[in-house]
Amino acid sequence: MNTHTSRSWHSGRPYSPAASSGEWVYVSGQVPVRADGSTAGEDAGEQVAQVLQNVRAALEAAGSRMSDVVSTQVFLTDITDIDAVDAAYRDTFPEGAYPSRTTVEISRLGRPEFRVEISAVAHHVPGD
């Protein structure tokens, strides 16, 4: 197993933003935090966009890319934010190539202002 650290913000807690094993890359739950540690907006759309940027950064640190993502888990503190997630997915992934997705509502995340967290699994064949 290889662990990967991206240039994006990292909490300093004992986990890797991404880990790879063979052709698989596992991205830990990413939250709406900019590289400087500040939270990206109060709006769900802004937060989802930042989270997906963080997922992208973690994948790139592992030598992968968003088009390799096969599955995501989305955690929302308010399920009505699902429309913002859908819009961001349409902007991020090509139509017809959306990854599988599990979306659940939870009571809270790591900071009170966080509305979304997303983890991902990607299948990356080196040289592809």
Automatic annotation (TrEMBL):
Assigned keywords, A-Z: Hydrolase
InterPro entries to which the protein is assigned, alphabetical: RutC-like_sf, YjgF/YER057c/UK114
Organism: Georgenia alba
GO molecular function, one term: hydrolase activity
EC id: 3.5.-.-
UniProt-recorded name of the protein: RidA family protein
Signal peptide feature range: none
Keyword check for Hydrolase: yes
Region: Disordered, residue numbers: 1-20
